[in-house]
Amino acid sequence: MKSVAIIQGRMSSRRLPGKILMDIEGKPLLAHVVQRAKASGVFDFVVFATTTDPTDDPVVEYCAREAIECFRGDLNDVLERYYQAARTYGAEMVTRLTADCPLLDPAVIKKVVQAFDPDRYDYVSNAIRRTYPDGLDTEVFSIAALTRARNEAKLPSEREHVTPYIHKHPDLFRIGHVTQEHDLSMLRWTVDEPQDLAFVRAVFAELGGDIFGQEEILALLARKPELQTINEGIICNEGYKKSLNDDPHLPSS
Length: 253
Description:
The chain is α/β, with parallel strands linked by helices. The chain is built from ten helices and nine strands.
């Protein structure tokens, strides 16, 4: 089964424009995400899926220089972008990662991917029943599930955020959850705001530019708990909640 990781990212993010090319320890943020996805060792292809908007030309140029697989698709319909990218790379199993998570743990990615059994599940993730820090999100789904979502999802929030149509319909999709013993979902390790970027840079400054995982970050925060105050108080999943508020009311079919 061909396994493809698709990492979504664009320069025109609403809260921190240009963040995916901002520097962290000598490399742009997106490079850390790609490196960590590859380090999991479970993918045939790792693809950076950006947009056809001219603002993303620098992203495409960077990927070309660094020999990173890159796909360009719709700016706002990210679900369509994923579908077309998956088709282009012949994916049978798709893993959704996002370019605002430079602290992704390869071991966590591998755990979620290995939990995906196509005989039991259409979709598996650690992002619905949350026990992992925000920023370690990994979602895995079959090409059949992606295709059905692409064909049936109507709401703007379902098109922009790729997987809501799937996990909102357990009657249509077989859904699995990956959790861990200790609930760390209150920790924020993603990058949406300037404070988040400051936190991530502080972590990298302490731990270096090589691969490190959840346990190393937790040990660091135990030694230096003041780091957690850098980005405290930011609302989790604010972008998705805004999209839900902006959705039109659709009549029942």
